[in-house]
Design goal:
Elements lengths: L1 H12 L8 H18 L1
């Protein structure tokens, strides 16, 4: 239950944000898009 409370607090307060380098974000996006296109 503690994890759900923490999640609710993070969503409510906008805390726990993680910043990712743009180059890394674009590299990680490619396999995610392939997975989504596979299901479509």
């Amino acid at each position: 239950m503690n994890a759900l409370d923490n999640l609710a607090g993070a969503l409510r307060e906008g805390s726990g944000e993680i910043e990712v380098d743009e180059t890394l974000r674009l590299q990680a996006l490619k396999p995610l898009e392939r997975m989504l296109n596979f299901n479509a």
